[in-house]
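Subject: complex prediction, re-run

Hi both,

The earlier run crashed halfway through, so I resubmitted it with identical inputs.
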Amino acid sequence: MLSLILIVLASIFFTGIIIRTKSIASGRKGPGILQPIKDVIRLFKKGAVYSNTTSFVFQIAPTIYFASVVMAMLMVPFGQSKGLISFNGDFIFFAYVLALGKFFSIIGAMDTGSSFEGMGASREALYSMFAEPAFFVLMGSFALLTGHTSFQEIFSTLHIGSYLSYALATLATFVLVMLAMIENSRMPIDDPKTHLELTMIHEVMILDNCGFDLGLILSAGYIKFAIYGALIINLFIGMVPYEYAIAAFFVIQILMAISIGLIESFIARFRMSHNTQFIFTLTSVSLLIFFGVLMILGKIV
Amino acid sequence: MIHVILITFLITLFYMAIANRMLTYIKILAFQGLLLFVIVFIQLNEINTINLILILLETIVFKSLAVPIFLNFILKRNKITREAEPFVPNFVSLIITTVIIVFTILLVNSINDPYLDKIFFIVALSTLFTGVYIIVSRRKILTHVMGYLVIENGVFILSLAVGSEMTMLVNIGIMLDIFVSVLVLGIFMNRIGNTFEEMSVDNLTNLKD
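This time it finished cleanly. Structure:
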């Protein structure tokens, strides 16, 4: 329950901080931190216009996408306190419920019949396909390390003791940050600022959505960022008491938002053809984590 | 601590597999030299001053400063294009490097030898194999030199794997290797660069006696 409240709170200001950091880095004042949420509220007040060529799939897709993200949010624990839903093997459910949402946003984009949206959908599918092994190898190695299979048990028994486990936690943080960037189609993979259809990935998929549906998709994106931030924080706050852990939560979320803003300000987007190899690097790094865990357990070497 | 640095070393190999520009390769090589010095400094229990100076000379001065600066000089002087131009896509390189590392881990894990430090052995072997792979998969002569330098780094770690003492003879041997290979190939390349415009291995097949 605690994690739910914290994630919702974090998602309110997260994207605002990113946008503000980017504005300041480029020498502008920028919109207020709550502007993205105000935009979403404005969109929620509007109705939706549907193209004649689309079917019911296009109409239900944003709702299912939003619902899947909310479902995933319910499963994220916070330190000792469980998420609302918690069972053995819930990290697999987490990954696949997000994948279900992504699947619906993909077929929703395909349903419009626009060639650009089809292209964006195919790219999104390709990148998620490459990002998936990284997440599973990562969570699988932590499950192996702790001997538990649910998020809450994994994170609460994860002790960071030796130098090696510090290294593994750092690598895991790197992988999770990059996964968050891929899932949300942010800078190194996709540039949310560009509005050239040929280079967009996520933005091009939601070109035909408007009003209420667009609001749902945008707010799902904000929540997704906060979910990944919460996962990263969970790596470090296994046994920490709540008052420090909650403070650490907000500090790390804000730091992460600022660093994402800085990354987006100073790094250019990768070439489309280089994205797959970049994403596969995450899988390689996760494999290193896996072997590091085997090394800690004494199963190897 | 030593494990952290060895893992960092493996990650530099991944980075090398997907690096695009020649300058990135040079930077990675310099960084690897720095890592090697830290590894030696932590790993060697008893180290006499002469040996330490020799290792310092080899890792920091040679691998991290002299060789990168010299390679950079060659790049500038011969106006070599910035891209590495591999034969295979970088994505395939990355997969092959990953497979090499996983295979090495599995291979080394089956060895039962109490005198062998297996983590060092894993890193050494995978660095060797990756170096060989970089040599066969890149088009430019300069990248061949770099692959060779990666192999040298592997040999350096291998000498740590078999004992906690770094023999001076091995050191001097490696140093001579680097010196000769880089210097000779560098001068060789400068000579070629004066004659031909483009420098790729493909031109070597056209050589006749």
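Chain A has one domain: 2-297.

- K.
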